[in-house]
Amino acid sequence: MKKKIFYSIIIFLISFKLHSLEVTLTQGTIKPTPIAVTNFYSKDDKSVKIGKNISMVISDNLERSGLFMPIERKAFIQDEESLSNHPRFEDWKIIKAQHLIAGKIHKKNEKISVEFRLYDVFSQKQLLGKKYETSEKNWRRVSHIISDAIFERVTGEGGYFDTRVVYVAETGPKESRQKRLAIMDQDQANHRFLTDGSYLVLTPRFSPNSQKIT
C-alpha cells in the first residue's frame, strides 16, 4: 500500500524576528510593482551558478508576496558585467522596470561575499546597498535576508522570507498514523524531520524566546 502523507492544519512560523504583514487597500485590486532582478555578477566561473541561484530565490520570494512582478530576464538590455559598474537607467525604463536589483558575488575558499544594490529606476537613485560574508552553504539564507531587506525598503513593512515553518507530518494508514515533527523554509526548501516518529507528537513547542523547539 502506498503511503499517504498528511499535513496538520496548524502551521507555525519561526524566525529570529516574527513579523505580521498588514496591507491597507485603497482600491479593489493591488497592482504588483514591476521589478528587474538581475543575476548576481561574478568574475569567478565557480560563483556564477551561486549568483544565479541567489537571484532566482529573491525573484521567487518577491513574486510570491503578490506585491512585485519580476520582469523576464530575456527582456533585459544591459548585461550583468556593465551593470556591476553602473546602471544605465534608460535601458531599464524601456522595459518599464520601477525598481532594479543588481549584485556581485565573490568566492574565496569556502566563503562567499555577496553584495547587492536596490535602485529606483525613475528617480535614478540607489535606495539600498548591503554586503554579506558567509559560508557557501548559506547562500539560500542570504537570499532570504536580501529579500527581506528589499521588501522592507520598498513597502515599509518587515519582510517574512527568512522564516521557517514547523509542522507535524503524518504518514501511514488512518488507524496507525505515524507523526513526526518537521521543519522547512517558508519556500519549502531545506525540509527535514526533527523526530523519528517513535513517540507521539501533537504540536510543536517553543522556548520562551522562540529560538528553540522543545
From TrEMBL:
InterPro entries linked: 6-blade_b-propeller_TolB-like, TolB_N
SUPFAM superfamilies in UniProt:
TolB, N-terminal domain (SSF52964), Tricorn protease N-terminal domain (SSF69304)
Q: Which Gene3D superfamilies match?
A: TolB, C-terminal domain, TolB, N-terminal domain
The UniProt entry's GO CC annotations, sorted and at most eight, read: periplasmic space
* Biological process according to GO: protein transport
- Where in this chain does the record put each TolB N-terminal domain? 21-127
Protein name per the record: TolB N-terminal domain-containing protein
Taxonomic path: unclassified sequences, metagenomes, ecological metagenomes
